Amino acid sequence: MIDPETKHPAIRLRGVERWFGETRALAGVDLEVPTGALLTLLGPSGSGKTTALRLIAGFDRPDAGTIEVDGRQVVGPSLFVPAEKRRVGMVFQDYALFPHLTVGRNVGYGAPKRRRAARVPEVLELVGLTGKAERLPHELSGGEQQRVALARALAPDPEVILLDEPFSNLDAALRAKVRNEVAEILRRSGTTAIFVTHDQEEALSMSDIVAVMTDGRVVQTGTPSELYLHPTDSWVGSFLGDADFLNGHAEGGRVATPVGNFDSRHQGDVTVMIRPEAVSLRLSEDGNAVVRRREFFGHDQLVTVALADGAILRARLGPAPLLQPGDRVEISVIEAATFPRVERH
Amino acid sequence: MTTASPPAVVPQRKPSVPKRRRASAALWVMALAVTIPGAAPIAHLVWTVLRPGGFDAGGIAFDRLAELFGSTTLLVVTVTITAVLLGTTTAWLTTRTDLKGRGVWSMLVTLPLVIPSYVGALAMLGSSGNGGVVSLALDAVGLPKLGVFHGFWAAWGALSLWNFSYVHLIATPALRRMDPALEEAARGLGASPRRTVFDVILPQLRPALLSSSLLVALYVISDFGAVSLLRYETFTRAIYTQFRGRLDIAPALFLSGFLVLAALVLVVAEQRNRGRAGLAARRPTRPPEHVALGRRARVVAYGFLGVLVIAALVLPLVTIGWWAIRGTALGNPADPVWAEALRSGGGAGAAAAARAVAALPVAILTVRYPSRPARMLEAVSWSTYSLPHLAVGLGFLVLSIRYAPATYQTVVLLVIAYVAMFLPQALAATQAGLRQVGPSLEDASRSLGSGGFTTLRRITVPLVWRSLLAGGALVFLTVMKELPATLLLRPTGFETLAVRIWSASSELFYTQASVAALTLVGISAVPLYLLVTKDLHR
User: Fold this and answer.
1) CA-to-CA distance for B191 and B198, rounded, in angstroms?
2) Which of B10, B18, B441 sits opposite A20 (nearest CB)?
3) Which of B345, B426, B491, B509 is the most buried (most CB within 10 A)?
4) Is residue A94 less than 8 Å (CB to CB) from chain B?
C-alpha cells in the first residue's frame, strides 16, 4: 500500500533523456513512484516506456537527467551506479529464467548468501510454488515460469521491482488470472512495482497509479479512474478507451452542449469528451438524434447516433433495446470531461 | 512531431557521440590480445611485397613469378571447376532423385574429408608406379602397370577428389531448402524441364555454388602437401623449396607475400559473398520432389557415385592399409607412431583448449556489442584462417626471429600460431552458442546483484559451454591435420603425425607414412563424422 509517511518516493526520474543515434527515445521524462505503489507505464509501442525501464534498472545510461532509487541518486552528472548495485529487481518479458539452474537456484541466485536457505522457500511460498524448487524452468507452464521470475526478482528484497510487459507471453484466458495473482503477490510483499504495458485494460485494472507515455514523455500521471475520467487531452482520452468529442464554451465552471450542461475544469473554448458508457438512449418521436449504426456484441451493443448539427456520439448499452438505423432517439449524458481546445491536424 | 522530421530541424541538443551498448575496455583488450598475433604476420608479408623496392629486394625474377602464377592459377581454376561439377552432381543425385540409399551415398561422398589431401597424394603414389597397389593388381591380370602419378594431372586429380566433398556439403542443404513450388510455377508457366533448370534451379543455387567455389579455390591455392608430394610446382612448393635451400629467407618471404595478396582477393570475395548468400535463403513450404530417373540414367548415376567413392575413399584407404600391413609383415621399419600421435593430439588439444577460451572475448564482443571495429576484428581473424598457412607460418617465423627470438622453434610459438590461425573455427561455434543465450539472461543476473565477471562465470559460460567444446573439437581436428605451418615452426625433432606422413612419403618410406596416415585418419574420423552428420541434417 502507498505509504504517506515516507518522505521520498521509491523512484524519482528528472529530465531523463535518451538518444539512439539521431532518434530521441526519451525526451525529458519526469516521474515519481511513491513507496509501495503499483505504477504502470502505459504507452503505445515506441513511446519509450521500455527504454525508461532499462534506465531505471541500470542496463543502459541516460544522456541527461537524474534517477533516484529510495532517495539515493543512482544516475546523475558523472554518476552511474551499475545494475547489480541498485537493489532494483526485474521481471523480463521472456522471463529470462536461467535454463541451466533449477527453480530453487534461480530464485536463490540473487538472495544474500547467508539468508538463501530460508529465503528461497519463503518466496516460493509467496508465489504459490512450494515443492517445485527442484524443477527446471522448461518443465513448468507459462504461468508458473512467470511466478518463478517474480519470486526470483523478489528474493533479494529489492526497493522496487520492474516488470516489462510481463503478461504478453500468456494466452488471453490465463492473462487476467495471472495479472490478479501477480498484483496480489506484490501488494502482499509491500514492494514498489513499475509495470510496462501497452494494454489499457491491464494498466487500468491492476495499478494504483498509471503514467501515460507518448513520444518519449510522460504526458499524464494519476489514478486509473482520474485518468479515464479526466484525461489532460483528447489523445490520452482516446488512448484509454472509446471517446467522442464535442466542442463547447465554458463559463463559470459549466459548459453547455447540445446533449446537456456539464461541469468544466477549464474556461473558454473547450473540447468536451463523452465516453459511450456515459450515454443512454431512449426511443422518442421528437428525439434530438438519429441512430446511424448498431454493432451487437452480446453482453453489450455500441450504437452510433448523429446529432442535429452532424456531430457523432456513440452509446454503449445493454443488449436489450433493439434500435434500428433511422430510429429517432433522445440522448442523455451522465458525465463528460473537458480540456482546453487545441487545433490539431 | 519532431521525431518524424529530418535530424537537421530537431531543435533539441544532441550528444556529440550517440551512445549504444558499449563494451568494457577489458573486453576490448582481451579481444585484441587474441587477434593481433594472427594479423601481425599477414601485415608483415603484405608489407614485404608492397613496400617501396620490395620487388627488387625479393630477388625473384619476373619470369619465374609469372610461371608460378600461371601454374597455380591453372590448378586453381581446373580443380575448382571439377570439384563444383562433382559436388553439385552428388548433391543433386542424393537430394532430388529417387535413387536408393540416398542418405548412405550422401555420407559416403562426404567421408573423403577424413583424408587430408597430402594423405590422398600419398595414396596416389602408393597405388601407382612399379610397386603400387593398383599396378600390382593390373599386373596380376596381365595388364600393363601404371606409371607413377606425378605432375599436373596427378595434382588436379588429388585436389579435386579430396575437395569436392566441401561443395557437396554446401550444395546439399541449398538444394534441400529449395521450394518446389517455384519449379512447379515455372512448369505451369510453360517452361521446359531444361529451361526450369537454367532459369529457376541454378539461380537459386548460385550463392551456394559461388561460396563453395571460393572455398575450394582457397584450399587449392593454400595446398602444400599434395602438390609437393606429387611434384607439381605451385607457389607453396616454390616457397618451401626456397626456404629450405637457401640461407637468405628474402625470396621465400617475397613469394609468401605475393601468395597472401593473391589469396586475399579470394578471401575478400568469399566474405562478401557469405553475407549475401544468407539473404537468398527461403523457407520451403514442403520438401522437394524427387525426380524419377529412368533405367539408363539410374545405372549411370550408381556408376558415377560408385567410381567416385572408390577413387576418393576406398582406394586410398586400401592402399595405405595394404602398405601398412604388408610393410609391417615384411619387417620394414614402421616405427611406433604412438609418440607422434600423442604429440599431435597434445599439440592439437593444447591449441583447441587455448583457442576455445580465446574465442570467448571476441565472440562476446561481436555478438553482444556489434560495432564496426568489432566486425573488423572478426574479418581479420577470418583472413588469418583462410590465407595459406605456409605463408602465414613463414610470417610467424620471421617475426619471432626478429622480435621474440626466445620463442623461435618452441612449442609456445607453434601453439600461438595454431591459436591465431584457427580462431574463426572456434569463434563461429561460440558465436552461435552466444546468440542462443538471450541477452536478457545476462541483464537478469546483473539486476540480481552479480557483476560482469560473476555473470560471465555463473550464467554465460555454463550456457555456452557446449559450443565452446564443439569449437574446441573442430580446432582439434584441424590442428591434427595441419602440415605446412607445423613444418616451418616446429622445434627440431618435434614430429607430429602430419609431419611424419609428409617426410616419410617424400623419402618413399610408404610403410612408415601409411601407418601414420591410418592413425591420423582414424583419430580425425570421429569428430568429423559428428560434425558432418550435423551439417547434412541441418
Assistant:
1) 10
2) B18
3) B426
4) yes
Best of A16, A17, A19 to mutate (most B CBs within 10 Å, chain B):
A19
- For residue A97 the three cell numbers come to 529464467
Q: For B130-168, write each residue's pLDDT tens digit.
A: 778 888 888 888 888 888 888 899 999 999 999 998 889
Q: Provide the chain A residues 42-71 that lie in CB contact (below 8 A) with chain B.
A: 57-61, 63
Cα Rg of chain A (Å, integer): 24
* H/E element, A281: strand A279-283
Instruction: Average the pLDDT over A7-32 and give the result.
Output: 90
3-state secondary structure of B433: helix
pTM (2 d.p.):
0.69
Q: Is the ipTM of this complex over 0.85?
A: no
pLDDT digit string, tens, across residues A232-272: 988 999 999 999 999 888 888 899 888 889 998 888 899 99
Query: How many other CB atoms are found less than 10 A from the CB of residue A280?
Result: 16
The answer to whether residues A301 and A285 touch, using CB atoms and an 8 Å cutoff, is no
All cell numbers assigned to B496: 607430429
Cell output for B313:
575413399
Angle at B219 between CA B218 and CA B222, to 5 degrees: 85
Grid coordinates of B141: 591380370
Pick from A107, A90, A97, A89: nearest CA to A157: A89
Q: Among A79-88, A126-135, B347-356, whose mean pLDDT is lowest?
A: B347-356
Phi, psi of A294 (to 5 degrees): -140, 125
- Do B368 and B434 touch, CB atoms closer than 8 A? yes
Three-state SS at B227: helix
- Find chain B residues with C-beta within 8 A of A84's C-beta: 446-451
Q: Which residue has the cell 595459406?
A: B388
Q: What's the pLDDT score for residue B16?
A: 34
Q: Does the beta-carbon distance from A110 to B18 stay under 8 Å? A: no
* DSSP 8-state symbol, B117: H
